[in-house]
Design a protein that fits this description.
301 residues; alpha/beta; Arc Repressor Mutant, subunit A; D-Maltodextrin-Binding Protein, domain 2; two-stranded antiparallel ribbon; globular
């Protein structure tokens, strides 16, 4: 059955859904990276095409009209189908091409994957890899949506929607700058650590999740945050130049520990060992390159 001659654009429906979800035209415009006047124009065009008013505008925000709420509900299924179509087409292209799309958490992307990928691609000069570096929660979102072929995470727990292969591991250590008072003794008890503000990764990071997971297992509270930062490198620099400790990947601070820029602090009773895992959608056929990379990587129990 052909579509009507005048049919609203998917991008306009997507913008409208964002206004409904966010409660503000300006916030929706920001999320879609367009100006507010452009967003207003698109909504007016959408209303003209539909023949109904979909939003009630006021100085405090925008809310859907009753008819607009019905449109938003109906548009949700259409937009999800469009996302599925886009992911499916991208997957078809990836199967046919020599492109491997990877998303990896910061620790894995910065300290583990580069030598593996360099050696892997050296044997496949016609193939290529794109690497999206983000936190573990966002990696899992990309894997589940099909926007990448393979993910690498350091989270202690995984959803039931993915399969996994352990490809390595790491230990997390408590560190301070060489000027910190703890550096003189080299040790601190767990109660003191849990009461001390730390430089932390942002929520959704595998590093932060691993610390929270272990402290919960021990029945201890999560330390307060002195500063939340979006990358391992930013955490390192903040601790080296500041006055707060952190709990971080040993891989990430090996050079700093060797140079004395950071000092490892022993915390009796706290030991955090974690596994790096490759993840992909459960019951999904891997692309050629994703399967070859998994076969190439070490398998760790």
């Amino acid at each position: 059955m052909p579509l009507p001659a005048v049919f609203p654009e998917l991008s306009a429906l997507d913008l409208f859904r964002s206004v409904v979800d966010l409660g503000s035209l300006s916030r929706a415009a920001e999320a879609h990276r367009i100006t507010q006047p452009s967003a207003s124009s698109r909504i007016r065009t959408l209303e003209s095409q539909l023949g109904i008013v979909v939003l009630e505008r006021s100085p405090t925000g925008s809310v859907p009209t009753p008819d607009g709420q019905l449109v938003a509900n109906l548009a949700g299924a259409l937009l999800r189908a469009a996302d599925d179509l886009a992911a499916g087409v991208a997957s078809i292209r990836a199967h046919q091409s020599g492109l491997l799309r990877i998303a990896a958490s910061y620790t894995v992307a910065e300290y583990v994957l580069p030598p593996w990928l360099e050696q892997f691609l050296a044997e496949r000069p016609a193939d290529s890899v794109t690497l999206d570096v983000t936190n573990s929660r966002a990696v899992l979102d990309r894997v589940e949506s099909g926007s990448v072929d393979l993910g690498f995470v350091e989270s202690p727990t995984l959803p039931a929607t993915v399969d996994e292969q352990v490809v390595g591991g790491d230990e997390m250590v408590t560190v301070v700058s060489g000027r910190h008072a703890w550096a003189r003794t080299g040790t601190v008890d767990l109660t003191t650590l849990c009461a001390t503000p730390l430089v932390l990764r942002e929520r959704g990071s595998g590093t932060r999740d691993a610390l929270e997971h272990e402290l919960t297992r021990l029945g201890r509270p999560m330390p307060p945050s002195a500063l939340d930062l979006g990358s391992i490198s930013a955490v390192r620099i903040a601790v080296i130049n500041g006055s707060s400790p952190t709990v971080i990947s040993r891989l990430a601070v090996a050079t700093d520990l060797a140079s004395g820029a950071l000092v490892e602090i022993d915390v009796p009773g706290l030991r955090i060992e974690r596994r790096f895992r490759a993840v992909w959608p459960r019951r999904t056929d891997l692309t050629r390159l994703a399967g070859e990379l998994l076969d190439y990587l070490p398998v760790t129990r």
